Amino acid sequence: MVSVGLVDDHPLMIEGIVTLLSRTQGLEVLSTGSSARDIVDISSRLRPDVIIVDLSMAGDVYAAIASSIKISPNTKIVAFTAATGVDSAIRALDAGANGYVLKGSSAQELIQAVEAVRHGETYITQSFASQVIAALRNASVRRVAAEAVRFSIREDQIVRLLLRGYTNKEIAASLRISEKTVKNYMTILMQKLNARNRLEVVIAAQALAEQETNDSSRPEQRQSRQLS
User: Fold this and answer.
1) Order of strands across the sheet that contains 99-102
2) Tell me: the pLDDT tens digits for 182-203?
3) Which of 152 and 51 is assigned the larger pLDDT?
4) Are 172 and 160 in contact (CB under 8 A)?
5) pLDDT reported for residue 58
6) 3 - beta bridge partners?
């Protein structure tokens, strides 16, 4: 049974979502709220598996998301909002949200988002995902460029396999190391790339690879490398 909290300042929206989730096998609504403060309150009192939150409520919702995750690290946050701007999505994800679902989405998509984040995945409304991922990639490029990221030989091997879609288990088998060792390297890569999860590691690594390819194709870059 997946426990769920719901925070939205529209009573009809609350009623509709509670009815939807209550009718879905495996989901249980523990509590509801109507302000940013309630996000933190539900996290501290009940520590649900997932909290669905609206972004347009009284109080600083983004700060409340960040605070609730510190209080209850295992609680996943799904932003369920009418805000279609990429900036809102980036702010929510940066604050610690694991999912971003637009209110124009189907009921089934909201349920899919809850199930996905519960299993450690990041979920973004499908019709909106490409815009958000592109923005995340650009943000990753800026963060990577700000720091002269250097990978060890082993880290570079793992990054290359990640970009080929390998799972941790497949990476471990390919490099003949334990899966635990792979997870340790993933933690290091997240720190180096300022990433919060596997998806952001892959996005940042892709961006870095593209940047290096573009740099190497420039005459001045090739000349400087030849001189060095």
Assistant:
1) 27-33, 2-7, 50-53, 76-81, 99-102, 123-124
2) 999 998 888 878 777 888 888 7
3) 51
4) no
5) 86
6) 28
